[in-house]
């Protein structure tokens, strides 16, 4: 891939990333204000815990898979 093509695609993807993240923050921020949620810290901690609980089995299986691959060599 040429350097100019890479730079152009990288800039476009960065712009898309910023638009998606800022836009979703704006939309979800407005919806939290509309619901009148004043204590977002508890909701944020709950969502973080749910994230860790849901991805722990995936992480563990990946770790065991890597261990088996290492032992086979």
3D structure, described in words:
The chain is mostly helical and 73 residues long. The protein has two domains: 1-37; 39-73. The chain is 90% helix and 0% strand. The chain is built from two helices and no strands.
Topology:
Blueprint: H1 3-35, H2 40-72
Question: What attributes characterize this protein structure?
Answer:
2 helices, single chain
Short summary of the structure?
The chain is mainly alpha-helical and 73 residues long. Helix content is 90%, strand content 0%.
Report low-confidence residues grouped into runs of 5 or more: none
Task: Report the end-to-end length measured between terminal Cα atoms.
Answer: 34 Å
Outline the biggest β-sheet: none
Shape: flat
Write down the Rg. 20 Å
Order of helical and strand elements: HH
Tell me roughly what share of residues is in helical segments. over 70%
The total of beta strands comes to: 0
Number of helical stretches of at least 4 residues: 2
Strand-pairing-aware structural class: mainly alpha
Strand content: under 5%
Provide the number of structural domains.
Answer: 2
The overall pLDDT average reads: 85
Q: What quaternary form is this?
A: single chain
């Amino acid at each position: 891939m040429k350097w100019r093509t890479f730079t152009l695609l990288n800039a476009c993807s960065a712009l898309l990333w910023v638009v998606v993240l800022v836009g979703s923050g704006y939309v979800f921020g407005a919806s939290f204000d509309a619901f009148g949620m004043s204590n977002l810290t508890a909701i944020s901690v709950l969502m973080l815990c749910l994230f860790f609980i849901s991805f722990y089995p995936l992480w563990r299986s990946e770790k065991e898979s890597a261990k088996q691959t290492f032992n086979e060599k």
